[in-house]
Specification:
It is built from 20 helices and no strands. The chain is mostly helical. Helix 1 packs across helix 2 (about 35-40), helix 2 runs antiparallel to helix 4 (about 65-80) and helix 12 packs antiparallel against helix 13.
């Protein structure tokens, strides 16, 4: 008996959506279609408009427009919109934009050029672009732009562009939790650690929040002022004297609502390890062990801002305030704010403190008792009664 043979024919499996998109976008946007699409889609409505856009960018680059040179460089890297795919030409345009002061040109050049390990001068241009990237990012950060500050933080942590990590704040966050819960040992250790890192603003915030009714905070501010005067730091001396004068006028008022010990604190202490809970309670040895784990954010950028702020750069002070909030460090932000909030000057500091005091969804990390004390300090700094007329934002 003869057996008939059968040939099974299976339908072709459809290509995955990513492959279809890649093939179709390559036909329209350029040789490296997906790259070109994501590089220009935010400024070009469709692929048909890309060649004309790139022609305009070519003219702009010839007129020394750094951003236009970056676009031309990207187009050459991807062979976009009919441009020749030529990596060397693209990298040269990135480097030119970097020399013109375009941060994206510097980072684009470094990220697109692998390091070379041969030849004495093999990495000359790459190193030059790296140094220029750091220089431009620092300048923008010091000028008050928070995004470049966050970028610097990531570079420090990743050891990118020749930077290295600074001291971690792993312990400081835990101490802030305990301090906001009313644990005096945590507050004292927090202030001491911040001073050891050179973060006078954060220490000042702790002292100010414990100047009434706990007198140890008031005395600590007086000590800071005396030290500043002894080393000839007139700016810090004047700021601390003004704060000290305001705090002596602070009416304690009768507290309403939660007491310090009953107040909620940022974070969920239930998820902390035993070592972290001991640190939050104010155990300095546990905090040192926690900090050695390098958890938390890098402190290098905040130190840069604080140093520039101390030298009298108001834009850097403003950046330090908002950058501290960005990295979830309200203690440092409060310190910068109370040192710069005055009735007639530095209105940004008073407005910033008012935003922290406001129990909005963005600032729920501050317990009710801390917001109450900070509200009274804010009103006194503005020359108003610390107990009444302080519900709204500063005028």
């Amino acid at each position: 008996m003869m057996m008939s043979s059968c040939t099974w024919i299976f339908p072709a499996r459809p290509a995955p959506p990513e492959a279809v998109f890649g093939r179709e976008s390559s036909q329209d946007w350029g040789e490296d279609g997906q790259y070109c699409y994501y590089a220009f889609r935010d400024r070009v409505k469709d692929a048909a408009s890309l060649p004309a856009f790139l022609a305009l960018q070519d003219e702009g680059c010839q007129r020394a427009d750094g951003k236009a040179c970056i676009d031309r460089g990207r187009a050459h890297l991807g062979g976009c919109g009919g441009m020749e795919k030529a990596s060397e030409r693209g990298l040269a345009l990135f480097l030119r934009a970097c020399d013109m002061g375009q941060l994206d040109g510097c980072t684009g050049y470094v990220d697109s050029t692998p390091p070379k390990h041969w030849g004495l001068f093999a990495n000359h241009d790459r190193n030059r672009a790296s140094g220029r990237a750091v220089e431009l990012a620092e300048a923008s950060c010091l000028a008050g732009q928070v995004e470049p500050c966050s970028l610097l933080n990531r570079w420090h942590r990743a050891r990118k562009f020749g930077l290295s990590p600074g001291k971690s704040d792993g312990a400081e966050r835990l101490l802030a939790i305990g301090c906001f819960q009313g644990r005096e040992p945590a507050c004292r250790v927090l202030a001491a650690r911040e001073l050891s890192f050179g973060n006078r603003e954060a220490a000042t915030a702790v002292y100010a929040l414990h100047c009434n009714p706990e007198k140890w905070g008031c005395q600590a501010i007086s000590t800071l002022r005396e030290r500043s005067s002894a080393v000839g730091d007139g700016r810090a001396t004047a700021q601390l004297q003004a704060l000290e004068n305001a705090l002596t006028r602070l009416d304690p008022c009768e507290e309403s609502g939660p007491t310090v010990a009953d107040a909620a604190a940022p974070g969920d202490e239930g998820v902390l390890s035993d070592q972290q809970r001991r640190c939050a309670a104010g155990d300095a040895a546990s905090c040192e062990r926690e900090a050695s784990g390098n958890s938390g954010y890098d402190r290098s950028t905040l130190k840069l801002l604080s140093s520039a702020c101390s030298s009298g750069r108001d834009d850097s002070c403003r950046a330090a305030f908002y950058y501290s909030l960005r990295i979830d460090d309200p203690v440092s932000a409060i310190g910068v704010g109370i040192l710069h909030c005055r009735p007639t000057v530095d209105k940004w500091a008073c407005s910033g403190l008012a935003a922290i005091v406001d129990p909005s969804p963005d600032h729920t990390a501050l317990p009710v008792n801390v917001r109450g004390q900070l509200r009274r300090i804010l009103c006194t700094l503005q020359g108003r009664d610390g107990c009444t007329g302080c519900e709204g934002a500063p005028s």
